[in-house]
TrEMBL record:
GO terms for molecular function: ATP binding. This is ABC transporter ATP-binding protein. Pfam families: ABC_membrane, ABC_tran. The chain crosses the membrane at residues 12-36, 48-68, 127-145, 151-169, 244-265. PANTHER family: ATP-BINDING CASSETTE SUB-FAMILY B, ATP-BINDING CASSETTE SUB-FAMILY B MEMBER 6. CDD domains: ABC_6TM_exporters, ABCC_MRP_Like.
Amino acid sequence: MKELLFKRKKAFAVYVLACFFPVIGQLLGNLGFANLIGVVEKANMRDFYIAVLGIVAIVIISSLLQLSSRFLRIRFMRDTLLDIRKQAFDKILNYSYAHFSKKSKEVYISNLVNDINNFEQIFFHRLLNVIFNSGVYFTSLILLAFFDWQFAIAIFVVSLVVFLITKGFEGKTVSLQENVSTLNEEFTIKASNTFNGLEILKLNSIEDKFLLQTMKSIDKVEQKRFFFTLFTEGQRGLTNILRYLIFIGILMYLLLQAFGGLSIAKLTFMLQLATGCVWPIGQVMPMFNELKAAIRIYEKITVNDEPERDINQNLTPYVFKQSIVAKGLSFAYDNQPILNNASFNLIKGKKYLLKGASGAGKSTLIKLLSKIYENYQGEIYLDDENYHHVSSEAFNNNVSYIYQDVFLFEDTLLNNITLYSDYSSEIIDDAIKRSGLEELLLEKEEGLNFKIQENGKNLSGGQRQRISIARAIIKQTDILFADEATSSLNEQLGREVEETILSLKSTVIAISHRYYEGITEKYDYVLELKNGLLQEYPSEVYFKEVVTL
């Protein structure tokens, strides 16, 4: 947090200085009021009118100080909040895929929305008040020491005791705020799941049941918010009781001083200074605890919690000339074995079809071979280089993917195909033709400038799939991973796309449940996964002998 605040040292210094502006206004107000009491004590009407004019001037000055304070603080607050949003987003984007997958995407959305909004609502308001009340406290204490240093020391000791009492609430305050954050994550996940399945809920008339579950989630969040508010207000209530008791003691002491000859004006000013020491105590500590809770949320959403990787990882350049070799490869997901001591050799330029029952681990194997999952047992080599040592960035630059679930950006068709990279018009036209996107271009007057809506909701499933295929073709990579690439296409287009994939120079590792007679047999090898075991067959053997068994 310190690094964030001190990133703009001058701006932060201005922010802190601006927080003290209201302190000046309050001290001027105390002085003006004490002066007015002194004038009334003297019963001089001329001085009374002058004192009243002085108070009016103080009110105007205080208002200008308040306005100036806000104006000087607002830019620093805006820039800092923007930094926090960037840090939180960068943290997520810099996760490895394996670490990112440990949480639902809705958790990250909750962090970026709910947690940052909570931080914004709490942090700067509490920071302002902590600085302001601390300024009032120390300024009043110093001025009070000029009038009665022993009295000032007594107030300091008493305030220290109150500080230690309220300090004990810090841990619970932080814990409650973290619970609110966690429940917000859970609610976001449930709400997202409900919206994703809304069509099924409505078709089966069970939306009321899920509405009830959602309301229960909201109730849990609001209850925890209520407990957090109740606890912090309870802190203020306790400190208020202590403040009133201390105030009574201060008042009794000053009244006794008045009997000894202390003027009413001086008594009033000292009482205001003493109050300036006592009242902030009850304000500062609960707010300080809330400030600590906000800082903990900031750390949660911005500090990278992914374990540091091996220092030797991702240092070797990508080189693929011969084969991808797996030796004794084993992998389990949630304690469920997926691969058991598999060994195989994928030759560059060859085409491999992954077969197996649903849930056998075909998609997992692709994620292992594409360096998405790296917590496996055994070894995978790219030529003679261990997979763990190959630069992930360089590897990804030479690999393309076709997935069944296609993600599209709210942008033009061209940018969704090229993914913001520069390609010649000839390469783009070739990718469009070979992926079967020509029909879509003819339908849209804007052509390649056609604007795709949120995740392609203005396109059919087949059109979305073809864009994914075009992405893979245009990249012209060494390796292509295809997971049900033709599942959303009709028979004719599916055959054409499958033929296109098999015609690429890339090494192809594909999953497909569809069989296109005369085309699917063109794969060089079939890798069949069954009960964690991997068996390799030449394509002609598999389709002539294994499939017929």
